[in-house]
Amino acid sequence: MKKNSSKEHVLAVDAGTGSCRAVIFDRDGRQISFSQREWSHRPARGYPGSSVFDTKSNWSLISLCIRDSIVKSAVESSSIKAVSTTSMREGIVLYDESGKEIWACPNIDSRAREEAEELVKSGEAEKIYFISGDWVSITSAPRFNWIRKHQPHIFRRIAHMSMLSDWILYRLSGEFVTEPSIGSSSGMFDLKKRTWSPRIIELCNLDREVFPRVYPSGTVVGSVTKKAAIETHLDEGTPVVVGGADTQLGLTGIGVANPGQVTILGGSFWQTTILSNKPVVDPDIRLRTICGAVPGQWMLEGIGFYCGWSLRWFRDAFCQAEKEEARKLGIDPYELMERQASSVPAGSSGVIGIFSNLMNSKKWIHASPSFLQFDISNPTQSGKKECIRAIEEAAAYVSLGHLRIIQSITNSEPEELTFAGGGAKSFLWPQILSDVLGLRVKIPEIKESSALGAAICAGVGAGFYESLREGAAGLVKIERSFEPRPKIHKEYSKLYDNWLKIYDENLRISETGLLNPLWRAAGT
Fold it and tell me: Could you tell me which of 359, 257, 168, 274 has the C-alpha nearest to residue 265?
């Protein structure tokens, strides 16, 4: 196999909610290779709302992705000058004194409902929110309290904790570290000081020594161990560099680094974000604020639960023919799905998708997922293709709702936004987003922006760039843009108002217990 001619590369490892990825970039930010494996997170038997992150099998998948990416790249492993990581936020891994993983969960784990409710009733939840910028729904404090109550034998053994991005660093280097963007997603940071909060740690009856040292993104904290080298085929001694949270590094990877810039990152979950040079916290406790990857920067965001995952579910449940045809053609099944949906007018011929709710931290519950208003007298215009478009419209509606909340808090009036992540690979979804929001939507050349952000961190550690800002400024290119169509935007404005009312009615049914919600946050 012919070897890649570039002599210097970096590796980014990205652990998302629905998959893990290993991506190799050259020092000019060109993606050389990409390997991905989907994963899922099983519930823990006997614990409603639980979701387990299987560190053993998931590390095997990550190692496989790294090995596969090296083979695909046709580069010498010695040309990889540094490796960095990124991941979904909120998920945590706990270790005993020997460094063995003893408990782990992904971001969607919500077993600690009673413990979150106790924090709410005591008034501590609100205090935590205004210290950390996040509610207790899926953060670490109620999870630690749950473990202490339900698995005391685990709680007594806790010697270290890390976020999932930090766990990959640990697997590579043996070092326990974190940085502000991923660390603050635990809900246990002092937002203003950008480090662990003694007050919140005290609430969990834990020692400060359990929590890892905090370093800025781009800091070299160790090197690939002999064991990790055998597992991943990276060279032993390769520098390991602190990365960060997927959303914040996703912003870095698309060159969003200035206050006031609005971005939507469309992966399994969709995040609508705006950057600030100060920690702006929602006074009505709807959205969340966490630290940015760049020092002195914070991010206000609204999270759309399962927006991308909903389309993945529909693909796997109803689009076997498209998957088979795509396999024969060598293309993505989503492309064939969108070709069908592109013939459907705005409003999906009346079909309405009920999936993610607008974020409301104090009462975050999502209606039971459903499609409404099929015209059974006209199956050719009320079927699969309408459902596909309805899923995409529902994600855009959630993004519009979050944008309006952000505007009310920050008094901002954006004229455009940047859209990245898996959803940005499509040709229909960005246009729907532009039409619903009434804004120009820019698509960066590299869609795996979180991985590129981690690669920029690795590049800083390798000495390619002086800072994250410098690396992003020199690497990011806009591939295409979408303009809102005034007539369709006006139509969507009415459809959005109706969708809000219809969603609320469906939510009431879910709250009665007659239907299972898409997701219910702990403490609601």
Answer: 274
The β-bridge partners of 481 are: 442
Check the CA dihedral 120-355-269-494 and report its sign. negative
CA distance 17 to 411: 32
Whole-model pTM? 0.87
CA–CA gap between residue 354 and residue 370 (Å, rounded): 5
Query: Is 501 exposed, middle or buried, given 0-12, 13-18 or 19+ CB atoms closer than 10 A?
Result: exposed
CB neighbour list of residue 274: distance below 8 Å, 6 or more residues apart = 260, 261, 262, 263, 299, 300, 301, 406, 410, 412, 414
Q: How far apart are CA 392 and CA 347, in angstroms?
A: 11
Task: Give the contacts of 241 (CB within 8 A, at least 6 positions apart).
Answer: 82, 83, 84, 218, 219, 220, 221, 457, 458, 460, 461, 462
* Angstrom distance (rounded) from CA 471 to CA 82: 15
Q: Residue 492 and residue 486: Cα distance in Å, rounded?
A: 10
What pLDDT was estimated at residue 521? 78
Return the closest-CA partner of residue 107 out of 262, 394, 291, 306. Answer: 306
- 380 neighbors 398 (Cβ within 8 angstroms): no
CB atoms within 10 A of CB 379: 10
What is the tens place of the pLDDT at every residue in 47-83?
999 999 999 999 999 999 999 999 999 999 999 999 9
CA distances from 106 to 16, 186, 190, 421 (A): 9, 12, 22, 19
> How crowded is residue 483: how many other Cβ atoms within 10 Å of its Cβ?
12
Q: What is the phi/psi pair of residue 158, to 5°?
A: -65, 120
Find where tokens 């009310």 sit. 408
Rg (CA), the chain: 22
Closest CA to 92 of 12, 205, 172, 184: 184
Per-residue pLDDT band for 1 (boundaries 50, 70, 90) equals very low
Q: What angle do CA 405, 406, 412 make, to 5 degrees?
A: 125
